[in-house]
């Protein structure tokens, strides 16, 4: 796990200054060392290293291939690097310098080419690779977007880096705010790729690579033009139609056996390290399964951590402790009182570097900092909900659509108006909040539109935002007819790359911690789409396959627990200890980008308890705090 940066264009001496300053900006991602490769010519690369595999100098970057054709700077892990090494050694001699996955990556690129290498890799990564022979720069990102990569037309050249802060060190940096990107952030809580918060700077989308050549720096593309140049080396719509691996439909028992074995193997691959490895344990289904696989495959006692809140309604510490005792792990609780959140909010703009608004970012940062005091690597249970239909919203959306879908678009519009009026008439409370929330969602033209509205922050429409225009949201393929499958498709294409992964990557990297996500092993993702579409949820619960697997491994009540999530009581905190911070930010709000009357109306309703506008207001406040620092 590391940070990468580079620059295409300009002269070597000016490029050297940018490489040094941008690498320093990424020091938190790689506190163990760094390197710069900046020859005479059109390109320079830099790297910051968090040493996990091959701690020697043989693992240092930027790294050249043995024949000198390729140079790579790489962030992430290739978990199947040993298997790839064997493939590279088959039938020919390779002069290996060490045992790092980076060396395997650059030699695989030299042997197979960039796109084929990407398809062979099981890992999380972003990298830049320069081809001396063709004078091409390749930028690439892993299939689900675990690792970030920004690219921007800055100062007459093309700058790229793991985080925006590195690009901002360029002396010709102009900054600015992209209104379209801001609207998306205030609606969903994150900026979807290929947009970034800054004009002229883009996020490489998950599952894509981009080839650039000297001269490309003279023509900065629009987001649409950039999309047209991307090479999509991985496509979820192809995976969703994959046949069973056996060539026939698996029985339930066979599928469960397959999932059992794959999870164990995915966890074992992600436990590979030359440093200690721990796990985040919430006591829920996903993290418990991951830790149970660690216990089965570890040579010693597994170490686990959980976050504990003062508020009993959101505290899972007791469940996590019970699971830890059952599995025999060495367990530690990290307390997250409201005071800790208050101390952290001023740091969030620097930690997340781009406006980002998921309240779970607070405990994610706190637990990452606590774990990093003991180990540099931890496994998490993230991804299970997106792959196996585990969110409560999945169950609720299907249930409501079975009723409202029959109304037709005109009927849903009328029902939405009635529900919003009812919400205004009801006294403050759950009924009022539910009516308003449903009213905001029911105007969808079809189920996909309805579900995308479900993903938006409640009350975000009341902020007076203009509807985003230019970014096309993912649409499930026509052959994917089951409602649950269509929701999983949107989750994996939209929320997972820039929502879940942004939260985890920035929180962990701010502490120099590497997080690994076994459920996103490509073999498990493929299996999740091979299973019958109607088998993931039922009887009022989701994640049926994961529940069955956990019941097999740990008889008892753990598999029956309802999902709680990594939530925090942000609504209460905004009315309480975070209120002065919020009021101070709102007093300086820029009227040119946000509608002050609309925001103040939503804020007043939240403070008075008439609306639960906690997520919409958290998005506004996270943006305002970021804009004060970086805007």
Automatic annotation (TrEMBL):
CDD domains: Asn_synthase_B_C, AsnB. GO terms for biological process: asparagine biosynthetic process. SUPFAM superfamilies: Adenine nucleotide alpha hydrolases-like, N-terminal nucleophile aminohydrolases (Ntn hydrolases). Residues 2-215 form the Glutamine amidotransferase type-2 domain. Its EC number is 6.3.5.4. Pathway: Amino-acid biosynthesis; L-asparagine biosynthesis; L-asparagine from L-aspartate (L-Gln route): step 1/1. Coiled coil: none annotated. GO terms for cellular component: cytosol. This is asparagine synthase (glutamine-hydrolyzing). It comes from Luteimonas viscosa.
